[in-house]
Amino acid sequence: MKNPPPTTPYPIGTPGTPWGDAERAAWLARQALRRSHDDEVVVPLRARVPARGELFQYGVLDYARLGLRAYPLLAVRSRDWRADRPTVLVTGGVHGYETSGVQGALQWIASEFDRHAERANLLVLPCLSPWGYETINRWNPDALDPNRQFRADSPAAEAALAMACVATQCASVDLHVDLHETTDTDNSEFGPAKAARDGKPLAWHEIPDGYYLCGDSARPEPDFQRALIDAVRRVTHIADADEHGHLIGTPMAQPGIIYYAQRPLGLCGAMTDARFTTTTEVYPDSPRTTPAECHAAQVVTVTAAIEYLLTGRT
User: Fold this and answer.
1) Picking from 5-9, 38-42, 179-183, 205-209, which range would have the lowest pLDDT averaged per residue?
2) Exposed end of the chain (fewer CB within 10 Å): N or C?
3) What is the pTM of this model?
């Protein structure tokens, strides 16, 4: 069995008892900086702003109350923003540990932004959770998953600041692509940590080997989702369903595609009323792929989604 369920309790807290302040502090004390948001995100963004784009700071993620540094939150938008053009939102790094979500967004800005800015208004937020990126973490320092906090009065600054940015920049959004990964650490670390934090049993599911999409069940758009799978199939393999016909515990609606009720769950993919919305899930731990291939899958998804929005085909 690949990435089997853990056989020992999570090292923080008492099984069956939700965490309090002491347990959250103990969890935070275990986190360490493992890479640089400045070097890997900020410097590349500032070094290569697209000709048709403009780089701006939409907020500061400041966790000084926890003894942590402040992070600039950066985005790129079309310089020539027109009301008669459709608007495209791309988000990455909601979960900071999902590397290709961030690096794929940066690669798309560098290689694809300018040619698509001729036909659409573009807004790209490549790394919503910079502390999570640096510590390779799913949660923020308050032990909250930002991708469950996209709601009014959000307690997660990562989500609240992103929502405020989109509301300020966009009168409406026609397409939203949210870039994610599903990793083996979902089962080895983040799932067990969540169960311990909430005082609940571990909800374990086999990690799919391959790329898949999660659409919004309120806006399924199956032809759109299928077009993206067909495009990505050219650069990486698509995940197969398990023996129950599921991906990550959810029924597979068509090859490589599942649906969640995203808004009730507070997911980033439901932060707008866009007709077309999808969440990518790349599997970087597969022996059948490489980091470059994972980044390419994210780039291809965004490009194929825009082509579908504009022409009805990829």
Assistant:
1) 5-9
2) N
3) 0.97
